[in-house]
Structures are given as C-alpha cells and as structure tokens.
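Sample A.
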Amino acid sequence: MDLKGYRISPWQWVAFIIVAAGLRILTGSFWMALGIFMLLLLADFFIVLWDKKRRADYENSIYSNDDEEEENTDMPKEE
C-alpha cells in the first residue's frame, strides 16, 4: 500500500481529536478508546483506497467508451 497520497487535513485532525476525547469519556478506558480509534482510522484508510480505485475505474471506462465511439464513426453507415 502506498501512503504517499494519503494526507490528513487540519479539519480531520480536529475531528479525530474530538472523536478520541469522546471515546475516552464514553468508554472510561484509555486502551479501549485507543483500540476503537485505531479501528476507525483503519476503516477510513480502506474507504479512501476503495474510493480512489472506484474513481479510477470509472474514469477508465469513460475514456474507453470515448475511444470506441471514435472508432465507430470512421466506419461507413449502412442504410
């Protein structure tokens, strides 16, 4: 997995801090809150990877359809 393109914005840091503090208060245990938070970060990472792959596949399908349409316009039409 490539982590170079995975950046965390300042607003995401604020959200992470709020969620971490809320988990700490709700669970009453630092280790339980840490475990839940790590699972949330892992889920977020895989959602970002899935979304990037989905967008790349969609863009590839659009460009491949454009190429097919251009090839079909070169052929004479039968009437």
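Sample B.
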Amino acid sequence: MDYIEKLLEKLKELARKLMDSLLGPEPEPELIPIPVRERSMGRR
C-alpha cells in the first residue's frame, strides 16, 4: 500500500507541474476588502 501511495503522490506532482507549464501557475486568491463602519466616540 505504501508503494501505491508514493506512486500516486508522484503522479499528482507530475500532473501539477504539467498543468502549471501548460496553463501557468494557479493565481493566488485575492482578498476582498470588507468595509467596516467606524464608530465615533461621541455618537451612540
């Protein structure tokens, strides 16, 4: 079983490298800014 798991990991790594070379690396997900209302000290 250990041999099969190692083989699958190698295949995944090769597939990832192939996809990167064909399509380019996966873009990093962009953070979406979330507006936050600031509370003023005098108002409640």
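B remarks: The chain has a mean pLDDT of 82. DSSP finds one helix and no strands in the chain.
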